[in-house]
Amino acid sequence: MRKATVLFAAVMLVATAAHAENIGSMFGSQTTARSMAPGHTMLGASLGVADATSVIGAFGFGFSRTGDGRLRAGFIDDELIQTTLALGADAKWQLLNVYQVNSEGVSTRSTAPFDLALGPFIEWYKIDFDNNLILESQTVFQAGAAFHGSYPVQLKNGGSISPYGRINARIEWLSIDMAPSLLGPSNASDNQLALGFNGGVAWHPRASPVVLFGEFQLDGNDGVFFGINYLL
Question: 3-class secondary structure for 172-223?
């Protein structure tokens, strides 16, 4: 009970800090802590209904028994900016595994309390402001690391449902182009430390290559994200 209380307090602290004036992630999480099998790939799509609307596609690949990565690209839009391209990539290495698979392919319960993974991520996008007399555009580059935690619950019908969460810390680099004025064009740059939290549920139906995701994000870009992954 004490450990659960400490964990809940830590999550709430991160969630509160995430409401600072951050740009925020445009991609959400859409992954549990569990890694894909080596040599396997994944195609994904997600919709973000947040401060900025986003439509994102993803390609994932398992590169080791405990590691996988994703390339992500899509479009973001809201009432203040023009629709713009967003690019990103991430990777994670699984540190704890609730269910381990032996050399014969048999899954057994381990002593780990939950699945845990750690990995880096990057995001890039250039925001063009619509009808703004002061700001013309803003280029954003983010790089950081994220902890992923999840717990797979086996369903009676053979599928599984996995509550998951992600806590990330990153540096946001901002390059701002000001609108032309009497003094001519000008620009400015800045960087800031930012924190973010995602929490959701992944549903993997029995004998299906499809995994469905639903999550909320507390970040500079607050909202909800829905995703689907197709495992190959």
Answer: EEEEEEECCCCCCCCEEEEEEEEEEEEEEEEEECCCCCEEEEEEEEECCCCE
